[in-house]
Amino acid sequence: MNTAAVVVTFNKPLLLKSCLSGIFSQIEMPNSIFVIDNSADTATYNLCLTKLNINKNAQETEFGRLYSGKLKDLNTFYLSKSENDGGAGGFYSGIELAISFKFDYLWLMDDDGIPHNKSLYFLKKTYKP
Fold first, then answer.
1. pTM score > 0.90 for this model?
2. CA separation (Å) from 37 to 2, 7, 21, 56, 67?
């Protein structure tokens, strides 16, 4: 299963850090992580620079500035949006972006969600196409 985690955040770098730690502790990892930053702030960008190992060069997309990186076998992306579209708008951007990268399955969460280390494993195990 080609899976991407999509996390929407808005000026909550400490919560995002805990959420990312939960994703990184999964016994079965997603292929990629997309962090969607509604109305980007410096603290969140700096966190993603280190935690997601993103590069400092961005490409402009219809959704905002997209930074990419890599952590071992995990592809990482950080989307810096110029305005806050709310949770629904952030998820819309993240879903559209992940679909454009041809992911089959998306695992969606807010920055205040801290997944158990077997969350993705059980989601995949119980899915019946």
1. yes
2. 23, 9, 17, 16, 11
